[in-house]
From TrEMBL:
Sequence intervals crossing the membrane: 54-77, 101-123
GO biological process: ATP synthesis coupled electron transport
EC number: 7.1.1.9
Occurrences of domain Cytochrome oxidase subunit II transmembrane region profile (ranges): 21-129
Start and end residues of each Cytochrome c domain: 258-349
Lineage: Bacteria, Pseudomonadati, Acidobacteriota, Terriglobia, Terriglobales
Cellular localisation: Cell membrane; Membrane
Protein's UniProt name: Cytochrome c oxidase subunit 2
Domain Cytochrome oxidase subunit II copper A binding span(s) in chain numbering: 132-249
Family listed: Belongs to the cytochrome c oxidase subunit 2 family.
Keywords: Copper, Electron transport, Heme, Iron, Membrane, Metal-binding, Oxidoreductase, Respiratory chain, Signal, Translocase, Transmembrane, Transmembrane helix, Transport
Signal peptide range in chain numbering: 1-30
UniProt gene name: coxB
Job of this protein: Subunits I and II form the functional core of the enzyme complex. Electrons originating in cytochrome c are transferred via heme a and Cu(A) to the binuclear center formed by heme a3 and Cu(B).
Cofactor note: Binds a copper A center.
């Protein structure tokens, strides 16, 4: 069939195969792009401002490209050599005050316009007033995970940030206070806001007001070590009812099921409790994520894997199997201890 088609159209088989490859690659790229965070799908006031500024800048540079490309194409076609045997030198023009003035003044005006527009957008975001209804969250960047503290709600969680839905009629923005526990990190959820760095001993602040419910994916955008690429985060934008239910769940003490007491004993007698906290136990560590409501999260290892008992067992047994370079050590537990510990952790909702 391919042979007949290529014979009738005069197209070579290799060209046909190339077209098929490009078509498949295009479909694959479209599928990936559909699931990739993008500044061109804003869902918050800061990201909307960035989006509109991006379109404005793209329009200006696109216009410059069209003008320059058009003039270049005109010059190439209009003044092409028509007689290959004509070696005479064309007329030479030296200097033009009008042209020189134009290519000096126009770029300066473009730069000034872009500068003023960008500055207006930056100040509009940074100087936005903080309403009484705002939610305060402290974000702490660690190698290689995120800690989220809700000081007014008494909640501490990790890697998955829950915030309430906002609207123009009922604004409920979330103000984030950004800190670093070790090295430079960068908080970036493209559909909600621009990048903001977390710098040791230099707190930064940003805010978001998500306008649509759902899950928004982001990650650390600053190289912070070997596992920088897997320092992922998720922002869950909840309806008022969903957020109230989540807050109530997170404010509960950690579940202590007597049926998994053996696993709790492993947690409290091994090194786990030195790094992690579980309310209701002796674990008060802050070096690793708070595990009080571990199973309420969809992922583990800062988004590196789905939160299932199978993945949890792999993670505890040898973290490098899921996230090579993680600072969590392999605990060298026996199979029985692993089974008991995972059974206990799986009850922490």
């Amino acid at each position: 069939m391919i042979r007949d088609w290529t014979h009738k159209t005069g197209c070579s088989r290799s060209l046909f195969i190339l077209l098929l490859f490009l078509s498949a690659a295009g479909r694959a790229f479209a599928d990936v792009a559909q699931n990739t965070p993008s500044i061109f799908a804003p869902s918050s006031t800061p990201s909307n401002e960035i989006f509109h500024l991006s379109l404005f800048v793209l329009g200006i540079v696109g216009g410059i490209f069209v003008v320059v490309g058009g003039l270049l194409a005109y010059a190439v076609i209009r003044f092409r050599a028509r007689n290959q045997e004509d070696d005479t030198e064309p007329a030479q023009i030296y200097g033009s005050n009008q042209i020189e003035l134009a290519w000096t003044v126009v770029p300066v005006l473009i730069v000034v316009v872009l500068f003023l527009t960008t500055a207006r957008m930056i100040f509009a975001i940074q100087d936005a007033p903080k309403p009484q209804s705002a939610l305060d969250v402290t974000v702490v960047g660690h190698q290689f995970w995120w800690e989220f503290r809700y000081p007014k709600l008494g909640i501490v969680t990790a890697n998955e940030l829950h915030v309430p839905l906002s609207s123009t009629s009922d604004p409920k923005p979330t103000f984030l206070h950004l800190l670093s526990a070790d090295v430079d990190h960068s908080f970036w959820v493209p559909q909600l806001a621009g990048k903001t760095d977390l710098i040791p001993n230099h707190p930064n602040d940003m805010w978001i007001d998500p306008l649509h419910p759902g899950v928004y994916v982001g990650q650390c955008a600053q190289f912070c070590g070997i596992e920088h690429a897997k320092m992922l985060l998720r922002v869950y934008v909840d309806t008022p009812e969903q957020f109230a239910a989540w807050v109530k769940e997170q404010q509960q003490l950690g579940m202590q099921d007597p049926h998994v007491a053996a696993g709790r004993h492993v947690f409290e007698t091994e090194a786990c409790m030195n790094c992690h906290t579980i309310s209701g136990t002796d674990g008060r560590g802050t070096f690793g994520p708070d595990l009080t409501h571990l199973m309420s999260r969809d992922t583990i290892a800062a988004g590196a894997a789905p939160n299932t008992p199978q993945n949890l067992r792999v993670w505890v047994k040898n973290p490098d199997d899921l996230k090579q370079g993680s600072l969590m050590p392999a605990m060298q537990l026996s199979d029985q201890q692993l089974d008991d510990l995972v059974a206990y952790l799986s009850t922490l909702h």
